[in-house]
Amino acid sequence: MDVLAELPKLTFYRGRVAMFQILKAIGVGPGDLVATQAYTCLAVPEGIIATGAKPLFIDVEDGGVNMCPTDLRTKLDESVRAIIVQHTFGIPAQMEQLSAIAEQNKLPIIEDCCHTFASKFANQLVGTFGVGSFYSFEWGKPLVAGVGGSAILNDDHLKSIVEKKWRECAEPSRLRVLKVQLQYLAFSRMYNPSRYWKIRSLFQRLSQIGAAEGNYNPMDEISSDFDLRMATPLRKRLKVLVTSAQETVIRSKSIANQYKTLITNPDCVPPKVPLDSDSVFARYPLFVEDKPKVLALAEESKIEIADWYKTPIHPLSQEDWPKIGYEKSSCPRAEVLSGRLISLPVNQKVKQGYIEQISQFLNGLRS
Ligand SMILES: *Cc1c(COP(=O)(O)O)cnc(C)c1O
């Protein structure tokens, strides 16, 4: 399948909306559970809850960042209607084992490809294992178009349902499109990795007062975004972006390979990846000993290091976990992971000197 050609077709307001539409097409609704990994962002449970179903959180693998097949097998019950498999940071999940479990239980897999459109598991492209996959195009994702997402269906019946829904979806309001466009413009002009911390705090302040389109909706109401498409001008931008997507992939791989060679501090450890897999990273992940300290020093030194996911359901803090049905200690490895994992940028604006600067910074943390 030509993923790049498909990406600008079934576009929705956000990645979570694309996921929601796939779940609805499968028939997921009230009374159902959808299995999804902890160590994810709020967008995923938000999209599940919008269908009327509830998330069932599965822990990550030991030493890895993706869904643990054993924990999935243990937690599955007859209320589960679908499994969302996330390829976190672009590292492919254990598709062979997860697909076998899904097949035994006659459950559809939907792949969360928001972090990668190009990684491979056993030489097969992510997004082609399940009945469908979804993608996101906001800041921080491999292709940045502003705000938006898309769905790709590998099943003709589901595809026709989602296509019909897509035709029924509305465009976002002009005011909203304008806001997102201004945000995109400001972001693409201002961003370079040494300004990361500054832009991040600016964005947080602006979205708090509603002047920027924030990433998360209030949890007390179901948002009306779930029947919106991606705005036409943003979709056009995406069409252009996919034509140079191969360059994005090459750059991301080259930067990740350099981090791998240059970061020699034994306290900075990359997560486990499946054998026979090829990761195209959205960001380059590393375990560190003292995450709060690393982040504080990085901000001081203007080094772009991201904290996500800082909780098992980013960015929810513990008192809000019950709102989305996450029970403390139900995914202990994901809880530890969120306290230890950092990630480095691999985008086109990361220049040679900066790769070395980040690497030296991390090597200098040696205790
Ligand atoms: C960004 C992201 C989403 C949701 O994308 P939106 O476009 O913000 O809805 C879902 N899953 C993962 C893993 C993501 O990183």
In short:
This protein is of the alpha/beta class. The protein has 13 helices and 14 strands.
Descriptors:
globular; 3-stranded antiparallel beta sheet; alpha/beta; 7-stranded mixed beta sheet; 367 residues; 15% strand; 13 helices; binds pyridoxal-5'-phosphate
As a whole number of angstroms, the C-alpha radius of gyration is 19 Å
> Based on CA inertia axes, which overall geometry fits?
globular
Helix run count: 13
Distance N to C terminus? 48 Å
Roughly what percent helix? Answer: 25-40%
Small molecules held by this entry: pyridoxal-5'-phosphate
Largest sheet: 7 strands, mixed
Structure description:
The protein is an alpha/beta fold and about 375 residues long. Helix content is about 40%, strand content about 15%. It is built from 13 helices and 14 strands. Strand 7 and strand 8 form a beta hairpin. The longest helix is centred in the C-terminal third of the chain and has 18 residues. It is globular and about 55 Å long. The chain binds pyridoxal-5'-phosphate (PLP). The site of pyridoxal-5'-phosphate has 15 residues, from helix 2, strand 3 and helix 3.
Give a topology summary.
Layout (H helix, E strand, L loop, with lengths): L2 H4 L3 E3 L2 H12 L6 E5 L2 E2 L1 H8 L3 E5 L10 H7 L4 E7 L8 H10 L4 E4 L7 E2 L2 E2 L6 E5 L12 E5 L2 H13 L5 H17 L5 H13 L23 H12 L1 H18 L14 E2 L4 E5 L3 H10 L12 E2 L17 H7 L2 E5 L6 H12 L4
Parallel strand pairs: 2-4, 2-5, 3-13, 5-6, 6-9
Antiparallel strand pairs: 1-10, 7-8, 7-11, 9-10, 12-14
The protein binds pyridoxal-5'-phosphate.
Pyridoxal-5'-phosphate (PLP) binds next to helix 2, strand 3 and helix 3.
